[in-house]
Design brief:
Length: 415
């Protein structure tokens, strides 16, 4: 037995010749290229690792020697594709360069939305290899924007980079999943860059209301006893999520908790995803974020609302994680419910922002909700802190409201 504290010999390393290294590198490239080809023809969730191996002309066992899972392979694919978009030549400088870069990213996702859906699917992965690769994707985008916005004076380049990434992601998500015109994404990027350079959010005719989907209301159409049963099912599912992670919850246990047969549960909710979309809507409706804040001064309501959102997210991080996870589900019913939650949140924020005198409060609300989601995702899934998330959101809130104040000062007549 080795003595306590004695140094154990490490694993024997077999030297790799230059030819062998080149061979492995070529195989790696061959597999990644095949994965790109498969994604060009279909969606990530429908691609099997056998398909990639076939296109690469390799045995599946050989592919697994290079990539332990489909997710780890496609994390590399996404990283390469995203880097290629960031490396496009941009002749402008400063905030204008950041604006053009963000527009280019949006255009890339508009041309190839399957890459955005891939990103959403991978961001919900618990695999540390995948998370590390995806962290690299985010870090590269952050660094490009940070450098573009290095000379800002109203906000730090760190905060500005986080904010513009959040706006791009949320706006593209609305287009890819909820049918919003990609023109709205470009518009929101332009608005946030205006804020960065000290210009207020520009008033938009009709408040530029962004279409986030139509409200899905099913329970009101049911007889009273069925409404009660439906509420019991949602309550049981909600309680199950407080006690376990989403992946460990079985529909049979939810049915037992609601005192209904499993077949009955499926008549109300055709899938686990459909049920938990409704759970998220129920949780959101009960959160402090939706509470009336009319008793507060106008200038305090937006900040109080943002703090209430973070209180809800921090108290129930698993609920927020499931909300993000459900975005990777292609079910139109699921997406319609999630769109309804976004629309409700945006309406509440827009009302507060309008009361604070912010021009085009709909745009400002959309940007602020996007930021809340992005920084909370960082805190829940990527090791960042809620303290940092709160600080970034409060800085952006101040930027929006101070922009409104500056506009009002300009409109006042000289004394």
């Amino acid at each position: 037995m080795a003595a306590v504290g004695a140094e154990r010999p490490g694993p024997t390393r077999v030297p790799v010749s230059g030819a062998e290294f080149a061979h492995r590198r070529g195989r790696h490239r061959q597999i990644v290229d095949a994965a790109f080809e498969c994604l060009a023809e279909g969606e990530f969730d429908r691609i099997k690792i056998d398909d990639v191996a076939r296109v690469a002309g390799l045995a599946k066992a050989t592919l697994y020697r290079y990539f332990p899972s489909k997710e780890s392979l496609y994390a590399v694919v996404l990283h390469e594709w995203t880097d290629a978009q960031h490396l496009r030549t941009v002749s402008a400088a400063g905030p204008e360069r950041a604006r053009i870069r963000a527009h280019a990213m949006i255009a890339a996702f508009a041309d190839s939305p399957q890459f955005f859906r891939l990103a959403v699917a991978l961001f919900s992965s618990a695999d540390p290899v995948v998370k590390a690769e995806l962290s690299g994707v985010g870090a590269h985008a952050y660094q490009y924007f940070h450098d573009d916005l290095a000379d800002l004076t109203l906000i730090t380049p760190h905060e500005a980079a986080i904010i513009i990434q959040a706006i791009v992601h949320s706006a593209v998500s609305a287009s890819v999943y909820h049918g919003t015109d990609f023109a709205d994404a470009y518009h929101l990027v332009d608005q946030v860059v205006r804020l960065f350079v000290g210009a207020p959010v520009s008033p938009t005719p009709g408040d530029h209301v962004v279409n986030t989907g139509e409200r899905v209301s099913i329970s009101a159409e049911l007889p009273t006893f069925k409404q009660r049963r439906r509420r019991r099912i949602v309550a049981s599912a909600r309680e199950a999520l407080r006690e376990n992670s989403y992946e460990k919850i079985h529909m049979s246990s939810v049915a037992r908790g609601a005192d209904v047969a499993l077949g009955t549960l499926y008549r109300y909710f055709p899938s686990k995803e459909a049920l938990y979309a409704e759970v998220i809507r129920d949780w959101f409706a009960d959160s402090g974020f939706t509470s009336s804040m009319d008793h507060l001064p106008l200038e305090s309501r937006v900040t109080a609302r943002v703090r209430a959102a973070f209180d809800a997210f921090e108290a129930d991080p698993e609920f927020f994680r499931v909300n993000v996870l459900l975005y990777s589900i292609g079910d139109e019913r699921v997406q319609a419910v999630l769109a309804d939650v976004i629309a409700s949140a945006r309406t509440i924020l827009a009302r507060d922002l309008s009361a604070a005198g912010v021009p085009s409060p709909g745009d400002a609300a959309t940007m602020l909700w996007a930021l809340l989601g992005a920084v909370t995702t960082g805190a829940v899934s990527y090791g960042r802190t809620f303290g940092e998330a709160r600080r970034t959101a409060e800085v952006f809130t101040g930027l929006i409201v101070s922009g409104a104040d500056a506009r009002e000062e300009k409109l006042e007549p000289d004394s």
